[in-house]
Amino acid sequence: MSSRERDPLRLAILGYAGSLHVRRWVDFLTQRGHDVHLVTCGGSESVTELDAERVHDLGTPRGGKLGYVAKVVPARAIVRRLRPDVVHVHTATSYGLLGLAGGARPLVLTAHGSDLLRTPRNPFIRPVVRRVLRAAALVTVPSEPMRKAALALAAPAKPRLEVFQYGVESERLARLAARWRNGESTGAEVRIVSARPLEPLYHVDALVSAVPHLRASGSSVRLDVYGQGSRRDLLQRRARDEGVADIVSFHGNRPPEEVEEALARADIYVSVSESDGVSIALLEAMALGAVPVVSAIEANRLWIDDGVNGVLVTVDPVAIADGIERARTLDPGAVARRNAELVRARADRFTALLRFESLLYEVVGS
User: Fold this and answer.
1) Going by C-beta distance under 8 Å and a sequence separation of 6 or more, which residues neighbour residue 121?
2) Domain positions in the chain
3) Sign of the torsion formed by the C-alpha atoms of 262, 268, 271 and 277
4) What are the pLDDT digits (tens) for 32-83?
5) DSSP H helical segments within the chain, as ranges?
6) pLDDT beneath 70: ranges in the chain
7) Is the CB of residue 20 less than 8 Å from the CB of residue 260?
8) Do the beta carbons of residue 39 and residue 13 sit within 8 Å?
9) Spatial distance between the Cα atoms of 24 and 42, rounded to a whole number of angstroms
10) Could you please report the per-residue DSSP string of 188-237?
11) Hey, which CATH number is domain 10-167+348-365, 3.40.50.2300, 3.30.70.260, 3.30.70.120, 3.40.50.2000?
């Protein structure tokens, strides 16, 4: 590879600044010496990884997805002024639209999950997703199910697709696990953690309703719920109505290091979403040693072998409670070792993003 091809790249990243995942991509590429600019619709107050002049906030859209249409003209103006080597968009829907309308090429799309698996069911959004996929010089997805979804949406076009996990900081999380984890459950109170958004897709309500079943069976449990969303008030009412408000705590959005510590101290991690690409929270829980109890969807089956390194369940309170009880019978030390190795081998963030950087150079070179 020539020295010119290895020169730092000028990148326009279009994605929501309030997303920790987006900011981690930004941080990595900045640390690698690239000239990174972030174009976002709100959330810029969350950004600490870039100087203020490199963050271009178009303001929070009004009216849901349609609000992004009003951001097309200012987004196009910023992209044209920046004249980037690559436009990198996060999600095929809203920011995909902005990247497509910006007109700059090459366009690289990173899809995260619902933008390919669920949102395109909307007949008004589906054509946008199809056009973004067809226009992209490169599409990255975190799982084989998402690759299949992308190919189906783009057909008959066949975009270049790469499957890899965005991943987690496996070595740092291993050190954190060693610091906080005993390796064995005390046999007393079972510590359960959820770390998904409080939205219908993630069915945290079913988990909350599983807690009374655990209590009725004689189990001493505590559930800590991390994350924010439109269903928080409903979930808190449910915990009160079912008589478990004393052992179910809602923490809202907390700093990543606080959630990591909670996962490192947990006995069991529960996620019962009905759809996923690859859940970063699941990978973090695996790296930190909590035994996963997760919905039996294809994305989770790629990581969890039922009864071996976790438990697969249906989205039902009784089934979830039973899954948690089954998870308690597994050897926590053996599960932790197996899962840490899986994450290190298949989902190390630094390894994954180095590969992504190489792909960017290929796109620019072509």
Assistant:
1) none
2) 10-167+348-365, 170-346
3) positive
4) 999 999 999 999 998 988 899 999 999 999 877 788 999 999 999 999 999 9
5) 20-31, 72-82, 94-102, 114-117, 126-135, 144-154, 170-180, 204-216, 232-241, 256-265, 280-288, 298-301, 317-328, 332-346, 349-365
6) 1-5, 182-187, 366
7) no
8) yes
9) 17
10) SSEEEEE-S-SSGGG-HHHHHHHHHHHHHTT--EEEEEE---TTHHHHHH
11) 3.40.50.2000
Give the 3-state secondary structure of residue 36: strand
User: How many CB atoms lie under 10 A from the CB of residue 85?
Assistant: 19
In Å, how far are 4, 244, 336 from 224, measured between CA atoms? Answer: 51, 12, 20
pTM exceeds 0.70 for this model: yes
- Domain 170-346 has what CATH class? alpha beta
- Return the number of other C-beta atoms located less than 10 Å from residue 1's C-beta: 9
Tokens 């089956």 found at? 301
Assess whether the region 10-167+348-365 and the region 170-346 belong to the same CATH fold.
yes
Report pLDDT for 4: 42
Residue 311, amino acid: V
